[in-house]
Amino acid sequence: MDLFKVLGSGARFNKKRFTDDISLFEPSNKLRKTNDTSDTQMDIMQEINFFHNSKSAIDETLGVTKDKKITKDVEKDQEGEESINCYNDENEDEDDQAEEEPLVKDLNSMDDVKSFRKRHRIHIYGTDIPNPFSSFDDLESKYNFQPYICKNLKNSAYEKPTPIQMQAIPIMIHGRDLMAMAPTGSGKTLAYIIPMLHDLKGPEKIGYRALIISPTRELAQQIYREFKKMAVGKKFKVCMLTKATAATQAQTPHLREKFDILISTPLRLVHAIQQDIIELKNVRHLILDEADKLLELGFLEQTDEIFAACSNVKLQKALFSATFPSSVETLANDFMKDPIRVVIGLKNAATETIKQKLLYVGQEEGKLIAVRQLIQEGFKPPVLIFVQSIERAKELFHELIYDGINVDVIHSERTKAQRDSIILNLKQGKIWVLIATELMARGMDFKGVNLVINYDFPQSVQSYIHRIGRTGRAGRSGEAVTYYTKDDAPYLKSVVNVMKESGCEVPDWMLQLKNPSRESKKRLRKKPIERKTIDTRSTYDLKKMIRKKYVSNYLLLR
Ligand code: AMP
After folding, report:
1. For 84, 311, 352, 427, which has the most beta carbons within 10 A of its beta carbon?
2. Does domain 354-526 have CATH number 3.40.50.300?
3. Ligand 1 centre distance from Cα of residue 162 (Å)
């Protein structure tokens, strides 16, 4: 309705004729206060206390006074699957940020540690939690790290640890199981690579001692590169499991013992385990990167088999992701030993440096018009466009290829060589617009992506957070636009909640929308909305209709 108001006299909206459509955007019957300050912080902490800590442990964890401002809005569905909030300490953080950073050696009282965590929005849950650290210099002076690690950090121009690194590294050094949740692009990879290298000390010839699992091959390669960068100066042998490396190790069994670190996707590793090519009995560190994905149906069986093969009694497990639905947290809690949970900022929230927008495009055809409009107006490459299926990725590619822009498309049907070259070309700026399926949504670190377009509305909040997280990485700014049609309207509120929580402006009417039901969210997660094909003919018809004023020109607005 706001949109129509803005359009003014140019657009008319027949409420009678579009009664059904209007009902889609009706406010929730059970309108909830958006800034519900009446609930106590303790209530919220109890709600998100997955590890069932005592009240005093929660008090200690909070390290905040009870009259603190709390935002307990958003989605709290019965399963808590997409519950977003911990608590909101943004305002306090801003004030604190101005203060000079105390060094960790000065953090000699519980109060210092609490205020340090608060300042960096580090929330911790569990028992006997090691203190965070504040400077990479501490790694050598306080934790006896070998100098090569700090040298490599310096050479990579990493000046100070990010919040997830500040807290996760000491936890991992202490050998504790960890569940770490931090926004996209906030340095999670280094948070496990650094302590792992420290603990492995140097190369040995007893076979794999550390294992990192990633849901996609592309992310595994990225992790491999980061490992190599951080291991310069030590002769660690890192293996990225591929068809070729598996075949080599099958033919020359003595080679297997030379490797220290293994990085793999689940299916590739399960095959290798089943064929006795890989042994994991000496693995002391097991990392699940994008852990919630790896614990979803579809991957869970494989992950389970990998766990079973890691038979070392001293195995340390660490899970990392930007999102953890509660159901996954409960599951993870079952197979971890006295774990510590670290949440940076808000649970399941988007990175705050991303400017998020929702754009109503009417019908399917409106999406192509909106993209073309963006191209005509001029845009800052690179841009990532997400669609819901391989078919649609191909269709959109065939539309945009004639628009005079360097566009490419990536999905699982493209060959590995093609996928590798596309990623390289995107990083080198040779591709301006990359159309992608969910394959690219997680973990990929494209530093310069300026804009993410959700051409097709994401199938879950988690998918939304990960997709838009391809921009705004490592503190940079970025933009994300999500197109929605009438068919997506019932799910709109899930995205609105994320937007609001990450500080984006959202019109009031959107805040008053109904939350989608648990059942409908489940349905959407399983099966995407059926959409009309992306083809020029229908767009052409629409353009004709616009010219003839059958359709208002609101579709052309950005
Ligand atoms: P990740 O979340 O691990 O994908 O990291 C996101 C980006 O942050 C990557 O480009 C890293 O190189 C970068 N990064 C990681 N740690 C730091 C740090 N301490 N300081 C600056 N950038 C970092």
Report:
1. 84
2. yes
3. 8
Q: How far is the CA of 447 from the centre of ligand 1 (A)?
A: 9
Q: What is the pLDDT of residue 55?
A: 42
- Comparing C-alpha atoms, which of 425, 418, 484, 426 is closest to residue 450? 426
The reply to whether ligand 1 has any atom less than 6 angstroms from the CB of 473 is yes
Higher pLDDT, 347 or 37: 347
pLDDT for 24: 59
CA of 217 to the centre of ligand 1 (A): 19
For residue 88, pLDDT beyond 80? no
Q: Which of 202, 226, 197 is nearest to 214 (CA)?
A: 226
Is the pLDDT at 60 greater than 80? The verdict is no
Q: Identify the residue whose C-alpha is closest to ligand 1 atom 6.
A: 185
* Residue nearest (by alpha carbon) to ligand 1 atom 15: 187
Question: Please, what is the end-to-end C-alpha distance for the chain in angstroms?
Answer: 15
Using a cut of 0.90, tell me whether the model's pTM lies above it. no
Q: What is the pLDDT of residue 347?
A: 86
Q: Whose CA is closest to atom 16 on ligand 1?
A: 187
| Nearest protein Cα to ligand 1, atom 11 | 187
CATH number for 118-344 (one of 3.30.450.20, 3.40.30.10, 3.40.50.10470, 3.40.50.300): it is 3.40.50.300
- pLDDT for res 443: 87
